[in-house]
Each structure stands twice: as C-alpha cells, then as structure tokens.
Write a structure and sequence with these properties.
By secondary structure, chain A is mostly helical. Helix content of chain A is 75%, strand content 1%. Classes of the chains: A mainly alpha (341), B alpha/beta (258).
C-alpha cells in the first residue's frame, strides 16, 4: 500500500514535469523533453529536440518553471499536512489561516523598502520570519487544551488575513509603481518568469522542511491523541510543537518568497491522501509532498495554457478550485463533529 | 512503585489538593474515590506528570518524577484519561499501537505486534481493530484507550474513571483486567465513582474530599456509613454482600416505606 501509493504519485509527478516542460508557445514532444534531460546528464538516449530554439527554451524557461512549481507544491502540501497535525484540525492550511499572507507582508516590506542585505536570500528570510510570526500568533490564539475548534481557527484566520491584507495595501500605497506591480502580481500568486536563481533558493528550504517533517511524522501521529495523552505516550509536546511551527514557517516561506500566495494546495492534497491512505503521517507527509508537487505542476500548466498568449495567476486558479472544496470540508466537519467543535 | 508526598495544587485561588500523600507499591490496586470536584483527577494528573504541584513531590521508581524526560516517564507509567479524543480517523489497531511508541527503537519493540494484539483481546476491542476510532461509541473508545495504556506495558498504570461509559459486562471486565495487571506486579491507581465497584476490586480505597485524604485503607475499613454520608453529604447504607461492602444511597421514598 505504502510503496504503491508513493510509486503512483512519483509517476504522476514525472509525467507532470515532462508534459509541463513540453507545453507552451513552442511545443516540445515528451520524448524529446526526456531525451534532452538524459543527454544533459550524460546518457545518450532518446531523441534531442528538433526545433532549433527548443533546447534553450527548455533549459532557460521551462525547466526552472516546472521544477519550481513542483517544489512549491511539495512545500505547500507538506506545510498543510504538518499544520493540520499540530492543530489537530483538518482545516488548518497556511493560506487559510493567514500564515502565507504573514510571510507575504514581510517579503513585501523587503521589496518596498528595497532591503537586500542577504542578496537573493533576503526575500526568503523575510518571508520565513513573517510566516513564523503569523504561525505563532494563530497557534497561540486558536488552540486550547490540545485542540483547535474549527470556528476559532477560521475566525483567527479571517482576522489575520484582514490585518495582513491591510498591511499589503499600505505597502502598495507606500511603494513606487514597480514595487506596486510586484506586490499585486505576488498576492495573486504566479510562477511567471521563474529563473534557476529562484530554484536555488527554494530547493534547499523545501528539502530541509520536508526532511524535518518526515522526522516528526511519527510524533505527529501521537499528537492526534491530544496534548496530555501524547505526553503520556512519551512525546515532548512543547518541543514537537516548536519544531513543527518552524517547519511550517520554513515551507510556507519557500513557497511564498518567489511565487506569492497560492492557497488551498495544503488543504486539498493532504485531505485526498488521508481519504486514500489513512491519517498516518509516515505516509501522509511524503505522499502529500509528491502529490502537491504533481498537482501544482499540472495547475501551472493549466494556468499558462488555458488562455492563448496569457499567463493566468496560478494562485487565482487554486483558490477558484480550492475555495468550494474548503466550503465542502467545513460542512462535512461540521456534520461529523456534531456542531462547531 | 509510585509515591506522592505532601502534594499541594492550587488553580487560581482555589486550593485543589492540600497536602496529599499516596503511595502505591507494586502489586496493589488503589481506588481514588470522592465527590465531584474533590481533586481525584487532579491527583491523578500530578501522578502522571501533567500537573506540577505547587509543593510536594512524586517519586516514580525511586526517582523524582520531575527528573524524567517525556519518553522515559512513558516507559514507567501509562495513563488512561477520562476524555478520549482523536483528531483524525486512525484505526483502533493504530491507536492501541501508539501505546508502543515509548519502546520504539528499543529491544522491546520486537514484541510490538503480539503485545498490541494481546491488549486488544484483553479489552475486547480486537473485533473492532479495523474500525476508525472516531466512529466508535464512548464505551468502545474508552476500552480502546485502556488497551493503549495496557500495550504500554508499564509498571505503573493510572486510570481516570475507566468505567464511566461502560456497560456492566465491560465495567467488570476492565476492572478485572486492571486487577490482574496489579496481581502481575504493577502498581495501579483507578479513579472511580462507583463505590461498590471500588470495594470489589481495590486492595485499598483512598477517599478524597476538599483536597484532603479523608481515609485510606482496605475497603471494609474505609467504607463506613458515617464517613461516606459526611463526605458525599448524602446518607448511604453499607451492606455486606458475601464479605464485600456494597454501598447504596438512601432514597427518600425507600425511607418512608421502612
């Protein structure tokens, strides 16, 4: 069960990456995409792209974009799974509860005030700190006695999102034309114009975050028992919480720092995995990472091919699809929990 | 062996425990009884390490409880709480197996599967093994949590009203198992409301009221009409049923008939 699910998701991700890299104004058939990659890593197998500009297009535009889409999808879905674990609530998600926009505000400030002390890492570090602060606020305000009530969590998210969107509006008011455009583009969420430099920042953040999430997986299972019972079976709850909150902030920052706010991936993917494979985090975390990567790569493909010569904001698309899903989840959890608890 | 000495606990302005001593040696089952709000669950929380007492100390296996790391204490004592809850739809088997987590990556983990199966059989939840925990009834959930505590295989077992949601058959079964675990050498502390049940299964009964131990000793010494009537502020009769005390409340209608 475990092996086959991960194998299926890995296969799905490979298909997403190959198809995603081939589609666009310049069409490259999947076999040629594979051939190009294999030749680049020293295996002379498969056909090389026939179009004269195909090789450059693939390596300078398409590959960084699909790889970043996969990394961001993996980071968001993993962040969602971990967050739901520590909140003990399947409705927790970085964007829904305002962690993504917290990261966005911090990153937006860096853009507007033109801070660049850490080079290409400046925005990522700012996003991490903003996300960390937001996660802590949500956590402290919405959790009581080891559980988070749905209604408290969602209301806390509303308040935090209201404050952060006000802060983003203020930043747009302060910024010049260019900063303004950058922030708008960014609150919508987009992978447009991705370069390898962005991948180089996001990849290590996502990798570290997912690796730590895997290490925490077994203890996240135990946390489902509630704080006290988790302690009774040997979990140092305070330490686990702190580690998990840092992981959520790190993964959210990885997703937000170049691509802006992409909502609901962290909600939909872990939920689907739970429906198929049960709630155990040892499988949930890696399956969410792979599933999120595949989903966002496909979503990005859709975003840039749905309308000719237009690159739709991917954050808009995920919200369009994820919003109704969220409503359905709220109704369902209301029914199963017998009220707003 | 678990021993509490001079435990004081205050919550806000209220003194919940006011100098409580309790020692439970291996092989003994002690029942904590007393009226609502007397501090029984708080005392159990102190023994479990959940509640830090303002004064006094708990010794677990000869060492202060406060010196244990979370995982280490979980290898020495298991706890069943009054409230069962689970955030996600884990199966019963998974929940019981969570009791094995303190032994993860130790030589004892080799027996995990067998221990989990035996615990489920002992608590009569083995036929529910594949069911999702949240879909169980209150009593089934309580028995699953009891199985989880048993699977932990600790020398100290702390149970907070394990029989509250159970039917008569399962009440007797759960306390029978707790009794057996004690006879196998564990120190068992059970919070109970049913005094007759406590009398039938406990080696000693500890009556707690207003944060104090009002009486402690073998059931027939502790369960007297005077003490219980005073502590519960309701008159009771203590009857003898084949050598075991049975406690029944006095009801106005019955008194009139006599």
């Amino acid at each position: 069960m475990k092996g086959s699910l991960l194998a299926v998701l890995t296969g799905l991700l490979v298909v997403a990456l190959v198809v995603g890299a081939g589609q666009g104004q310049l069409h490259v058939p999947p076999l040629e995409v594979l051939g190009s990659v294999l030749h680049r890593i020293g295996i002379d197998l498969g056909p090389l792209p026939t179009h004269p500009r195909a090789e450059d297009t693939l390596w300078e535009v398409r590959f960084p974009r699909v790889v970043l889409a996969a990394l961001v999808g993996a980071a968001l879905a993993t962040a969602g799974a971990v967050m739901q674990g520590i909140f003990g609530n399947p409705l927790a998600e970085p964007a829904v509860v305002g962690v993504s926009s917290g990261a966005a505000v911090a990153a937006g400030s860096v853009i507007v005030f033109d801070v660049a002390v850490l080079g290409s890492w400046t925005i990522a570090v700012a996003a991490f700190l903003g996300g960390l602060a937001a996660t802590l606020v949500v956590y402290l305000l919405s959790r009581a006695g080891g559980r988070t009530e749905v209604v408290t969590l969602v209301l806390t998210g509303i308040a935090l999102n209201a404050m952060t969107s006000a802060a983003l509006a203020f930043l747009m008011f302060l910024g010049d034309q260019q900063a303004r455009e950058e922030i708008v583009f960014w609150t919508l969420g987009s992978l447009n114009g991705t370069r390898w430099a962005a991948v180089a920042v996001v990849a290590p953040l996502a990798a570290i975050g997912i690796a730590v999430a895997l290490v925490l997986a077994r203890r996240l299972d135990l946390l489902a028992l509630g704080d006290r019972a988790a302690f009774h079976v040997g979990v140092d709850v305070e330490r686990l919480r702190l580690a998990a909150i840092v992981v959520v902030a790190l993964l959210t920052a990885a997703a937000v720092c170049f691509c802006g706010i992409i909502a609901f991936v962290g909600l939909v993917v872990p939920h689907l995995v739970r429906m198929v494979a049960g709630p155990g985090h040892l499988l949930l975390v890696p399956a969410s990472a792979l599933g999120g990567a595949a989903l966002l790569t496909f979503a990005d493909l859709w975003a840039r091919t749905a309308v000719d010569n237009a690159d739709l904001p991917i954050g808009m698309l995920t919200s369009l699809v994820g919003g109704p899903f969220f409503l359905w989840l709220i109704r369902r959890s209301r029914r199963t929990a017998g009220g707003w608890s | 062996m678990i021993e509490a000495r001079g435990i004081h606990v205050t919550l806000g302005d209220k003194v919940v425990l006011d100098g409580v001593d309790l020692a439970v040696p291996p092989g003994e089952l002690v029942a904590l009884v007393g009226p609502n709000g007397a501090g029984k669950s708080t005392l159990l929380g102190v023994l479990a390490g959940d509640v830090r007492p303002a004064a006094g100390s708990v010794q677990l296996a000869g060492r202060p409880l406060s010196s244990y790391a979370a995982r280490e204490s979980a290898q020495h004592r298991a706890v069943q709480l009054q409230q069962q809850g689970l955030a996600f739809g884990f199966r019963v088997r998974d929940v019981v197996a969570m009791g094995r987590s303190p032994w993860h990556r130790t030589p004892r983990a080799a027996g995990d599967e067998e221990v989990v199966r035996a615990a489920m059989v002992r608590t009569d939840v083995d036929r529910l093994a594949e069911r999702a925990f949240p879909t169980l009834s209150g009593g089934e959930q309580a028995r699953t949590s009891f199985a989880r505590a048993l699977a932990q295989e600790t020398p100290v077992l702390l149970l907070d009203e394990p029989t509250a949601a159970l039917d008569i058959r399962h009440q007797e079964a759960v306390l029978g198992v707790a009794r057996a675990v004690a006879s196998e050498g564990a120190a068992v502390v059970v919070v109970l409301h049913d005094l007759s049940l406590a009398a039938a299964y406990a080696d000693r009964i500890c009556v707690i009221a207003d944060g104090l131990v009002r009486a402690a000793g073998p059931p027939h010494e502790v369960l007297t009409e005077d003490l219980l009537g005073e502590v519960y502020r309701h008159p009771v009769r203590v009857l003898d049923h084949g050598g075991t005390p049975v406690v029944v409340p006095v009801r106005a209608a019955q008194e009139a008939r006599c």
